[in-house]
Design goal:
It is built from 12 helices and 16 strands. With 407 residues, the chain is of the alpha+beta class. It has 3 domains: 123 residues, Rossmann fold; 130 residues, ATP-grasp fold, B domain (D-amino Acid Aminotransferase, Chain A, domain 1); 67 residues, 2-Layer Sandwich (Dna Ligase, domain 1), CATH 3.30.1490.
Length: 407
């Protein structure tokens, strides 16, 4: 019997389109001999849809087609199963799924929101739990943990948008303890969205205003000027980890931009005003310019592998991730930048040089998800208690006065 895998993607996030690309790539590479693949697409207005037509990326160029031919559903637990039920009349059950596979980038998907819902209804799912997802998405939380683990990082500071609006001078003064150039980032977005480099005070205020339009928490870091950017992927959980090859990212800018990641070299035909190339177009992160393996000394390679493993375990990550590093070519220092707990294209291209196909990578991720689910079941989350005993056998009468006050 095939395992029913519900691939969940899209959502209310600035990385909505990138999520679709990554999910369709994975859907096409999941082993159909082992799995029955059920696409579960979440629109930008948070409606859930399923249907085989969602496996074709061209359908996303016209939302009217999805709403017309897709099944608008809700996912919940029923009688020991996890079902997709028609949201509209007739409210029949469309199908059930055995395991959920979130491939959602950024806000409301990669940040613990969807993981919290899946864990609350009790369904097995692929990837990190709520805690790993939260700290893997919030760059400030992440850096606080890295700092505790004594991992090498560039100097940084952070602030809330309200701090800046109420007292911009104090915030700027704190930032100026760093050295220009600095890079300004929304703390919880990905795909290089909302990020700008500032070389002076004027550019700094422009970068802050831009970042604040995406997030209420802003991170500012010193820039590595003689930069080589390299990435590595890790697959596993807190018990076991496997490492991919290391790639060198090739960028014509001070950091790898959204266009370089997803658009350049993929000028497919745009349809219906959709924001990424469809047929024959973008291949997601797999389309960025890169050198595999990175041309770095063995000493740096070993250092990156050790830091990546330590970071993965410190955050409690699971499934697959991509960890980004900065190398100062002048000083030869290595700095950890950030972890991507659901990376674009699931970083499959970093495993292929080791002979691991995308299908095999997806298999590993699903198996890890099943094992982590069984481990959760083995733990104690509830216990018998008589704490409510006083509220039974007439004890509830004492709540009448409370009811009046609450009424």
């Amino acid at each position: 019997m095939k395992i029913k895998v519900g691939v969940i993607y899209g959502g209310e996030t600035v990385e909505h389109e990138v999520s679709i690309i990554s999910a369709i790539q994975a859907i096409n590479k999941l082993d159909q001999e082992k799995y029955e693949i059920i696409p579960i697409y979440i629109t930008k207005d948070r409606e859930w849809y399923t249907g085989n037509m969602l496996k074709d990326i061209e359908i996303y160029s016209d939302m009217n087609l999805i709403k017309k031919y897709g099944k608008n559903v809700i996912l919940y637990a029923k009688d020991g199963s996890f079902v997709l039920q028609n949201k509209k009349f007739p409210k029949n059950i469309i199908t059930d799924i055995d395991i959920a596979f979130p491939i959602m980038h950024g806000t409301n998907g990669e940040d613990g929101v969807i993981q919290g819902y899946l864990q609350a209804i009790g369904i097995p799912f692929v990837g990190g739990n709520i805690y790993a997802s939260v700290v893997g998405q919030d760059k400030v939380f992440m850096k606080d943990i890295f700092e505790k683990e004594k991992l090498p990082m560039t100097k940084y500071t952070w602030f809330y948008d309200c701090d800046y609006k109420n007292d911009s001078e104090s915030v700027i003064k704190e930032i100026k303890k760093l050295k220009y150039p600095v890079i300004v980032k929304p703390a919880t977005t990905g795909s290089s969205i909302g990020i700008k480099v500032a070389d002076n005070d004027k550019e700094l205020t422009e970068a802050i205003d831009n970042a604040i339009s995406y997030d209420n928490k802003i991170l500012v870091e010193e820039v590595v000027t003689d930069l080589k950017e390299v990435n590595i992927s890790v697959v596993g959980n807190y018990e076991h980890q496997k490492l991919s090859v290391i790639e060198e990212v090739i960028s014509g800018n001070k950091f790898l931009t959204y266009d370089e990641k997803y658009i350049q070299g993929n000028k497919g035909k745009l349809k219906g005003g959709f924001k990424y190339p469809v047929k024959g177009g973008s291949k997601g992160m797999a389309s960025a310019n890169r050198k595999i393996p990175a041309e770095i000394p063995d000493k740096q390679k070993k250092e990156i592998e050790e830091i990546a493993t330590k970071a993965f375990k410190a955050l409690g990550s699971a499934g697959t991730c991509r960890i980004d590093f900065l190398i100062d070519e002048k000083s030869k220092k290595v700095y950890i930048n950030e972890i991507n707990s659901i990376p674009g294209s699931l970083a499959y291209y970093l495993w292929e040089p080791l002979g691991v196909s995308y299908s095999e990578l997806l298999d590993d991720m699903i198996n890890i998800g099943i094992k982590d689910y069984k481990r959760r079941l083995s733990k104690t989350y509830t216990f018998d208690t008589n704490i409510l005993k006083g509220f039974t056998n007439g004890g509830l009468k004492g709540l009448k006065g409370v009811k009046g006050k609450l009424g």
